[in-house]
Amino acid sequence: MVKSANPSVSMRRYMLRIALWSLGIGVVLALAGWWMWRPVFYLGCVMGLLGVGWLAGLPMQSRDPVTPAFRHYIRTVLPAMGGYVLAVLVFDVVKVSLLPPWARVLVALLPVLPMVWVVFAMWRYTVQIDELERRVQLEAVFLTCGVVGLLAFAVGMLEMTRIVTLRAGLFYVLPLMFLVYGIANWWCRRKYGLKGCQ
Amino acid sequence: MNNQLRELRAARDWSQARLAEALDVSRQTVNAIETGKYDPSLPLAFKIGQVFGLPIESIFSPDAEG
Fold first, then answer.
1. Could B32 and A194 be called an inter-chain contact, meaning their C-beta atoms sit closer than 8 Å?
2. What letters, b where the CB count within 10 A reaches 16 and e where it falls short, cover B31-49?
3. What is the phi/psi pair of residue A49, to 5°?
4. pLDDT of residue A171
5. Looking at this predicted complex, what is its ipTM?
6. CB under 8 Å to A46, separation ≥6 — which residues?
7. Hey, are the CB atoms on A192 and B26 less than 8 Å from each other?
8. N or C: which end of chain B has fewer CB within 10 A?
């Protein structure tokens, strides 16, 4: 396990900083987007809501020092998520149907690249944490695979009967995995009496 | 599994954070072991024994029914 480099910064304070930055940037983007470009307004709303969510979750965070492993993880994931959002905005702006096939492939796969980095950061974080934290990750990932896999299977079966028709249904698998993983991680940590997200 | 971790730590007047640093785990992991919510792996159990200078069977014992 990687030890804390700066014991003065607690996990709660670290998450408070992230929440306030997210809230601030969210408000600025929402205000700017309202006047200029509606997709930026929605992006600002999402970032603002994330900030509010993190603020609400602060009492659940531990007062233990933030570890370099978690700091490293956040410093990798946040820019990658920013890149993902930018790539999705590009996809939204570009008239994909007017592009040649190679450019269509490029624009469509653009948001995938930053997500590769996110998955890599998650794997690296799992390697750096201690055995109990790793066990929590294992259980959370198992639950995530089970829930999302079963859900995808059920939706796939319903699609075959034409009762359900999802446009680009596979697109929702990754966001759903992140959502289920977040809930599963929280539940597994609670089981072992661990506080917060580190 | 039962363990004497809290008692041994208190006898040496160590904080959970200090023990965690010696074991190279998080403070929350030490707390989970002390409260019986998590049984450590064999390598970690040996490391705990090494830190306290005791054999693992004098720190950990099976549950009454086990």
1. yes
2. bbbbeeebebeeebbebbb
3. -65, -40
4. 84
5. 0.90
6. A26
7. no
8. C
